[in-house]
Every structure is written in C-alpha cells, then in structure tokens.
Amino acid sequence: MPSHKEPLFMNAEVYRKLSENDPRRNISDRHTVFSFDEYKQLFRDVKNESAIGEASATYLYYYKTAISNIKKYLGDVKIIIALRNPTDRAYSAYSHLRRENAETRSFEDFLDQEPLRKQENWDILNLPVSSGLFYNQVKAYMAHFSDVKVILTNDIKNNSKSAMKKLFTFLRVDPDFVPDMTRKHNQSRRYKEGIVPAILHHNNIVKIFIRHMIEKWFSSAMQSRIRKKVDDLRTQKMRHRTRAQLDELFHDDINKLETLLERDLSDLKSY
Questions:
Q1: Residue 3 buriedness (CB in 10 A; 0-12 / 13-18 / 19+)
Q2: pLDDT tens track for 43-56
C-alpha cells in the first residue's frame, strides 16, 4: 500500500470539476493524483509483493467513473468494499467538515443543503445521504468485477482477527499474519462550541503556548486525562429525531443490499 492512502486517481475527473463554492476544493486538489504516471509512481517501491493496492473510499460513490477507469488502467482486479452504518457515516462526514471549519451549520441544516451541493458538484463529504445509499454502488461493482469482497467495519471492530484472516485469504496473502489494529484512522467528532475547545483545537499562538505548558508541567498520564476531559466537553450526539429520520431513509436500500449479498446487515441499521 502506498503512503498516500487515498490517491483518488480513478475519480480524478470528478475532482477537476469541484464547485468553486466548496471550501474543500483546495484540499481535494492537493490530495488527488491526476495522472497515471504519477499514480504508478506511488508503487515505485514494489518488488515481488503478492498483492498491492490502495484505499480510495470515494470510488464506491463515484462508481460509474471509478469502474470505467479501474477497468481501463488495471483490468479485472480484486475489489474490497467496506461498509459502515450509513447514518453514523453521515454524521461522521459532518463532524469531519466541522473539524476543518468547512461547515458551520447545524447537522440538520447541513443535510438540507445536500441537493444543492450535489447539483453543484461539491466534495463527497457534503453528500452524506446520497453516498450512504450502498445498494446500486455495490451491485455495480459485483456486475463489473469477478472478485468482490464486501465487509462491514463492525466485522473488523468486533472480531478483527477473524475478519482480517478472511481478507488476507481473499487477497491470497499470508492468512495468519496479525497486523497492528491499535491505530485508528479517520476519526471525527462533533464539537460543542466553547472557549476551551476553541483554544485547544484551533491553530493559534495561544494554543501552541498552552500545549507547551501542559507538556512541560504534566506527566504523560495526566496529559491523556486532560485530553479526554476536553474531548468529553467537545463531543455532542446526533438528535434522536434526526437519527430516526435517516434510519428510515436508508431502510429500504439496506434491505435490498441484504438480498443482493445474501447476508444479515443488521450492523448497518441503528434500530
């Protein structure tokens, strides 16, 4: 796997046309690999590895563009699709935007903006409902590739060794390898407004000074407790009514996906 986790190359043409109104446009430009030569350079250190790959999550939502380009550049490769509860995924996208200061509205107002932002071609994080309708996305990959593996993020969370063993078997690499599962990626939180989060979680001279003082005066254990307390202050849950509405919206799509995959997808449901 390249150090550049999500090169987005197979969807590069989508990112070339992102809306000028999208505050994440510059971020996407910096992270997107726009040429095949540059894409191949990501794998320049490959020698005799049994399997190589990358992990651009947006290939699922932009499946029409991605499938066409994957077939063009790579052929009939193995595809792994990881799915999580779409309601939680929607809120995670919102939290990510809040963390980047790219969204200031309430979660409910953010959801209301999706149709307009979709029409204007905003970054996928601004399309939490559309991107969470997995059925057509997964169905398309299964129709165009001969080797597709669908897993749930909860499979890895709840029984990581078993889940990874199945993935490694699918990839035809050593199924008994035990990876380090302690590091968590792409964690997002919804932050409450307040002076403490503002000071400790925005880049400014005050934040740098306070962080330096904390590191100087307190032990590592105490620093961890301080960070946990601040996180507790910042974390805010989704409204119950909003969750219920999203769960209902995704309900039929998940049921169709259960039929397609012939497996129980209760982990994708919040009820």
A1: exposed
A2: 999 999 989 999 99
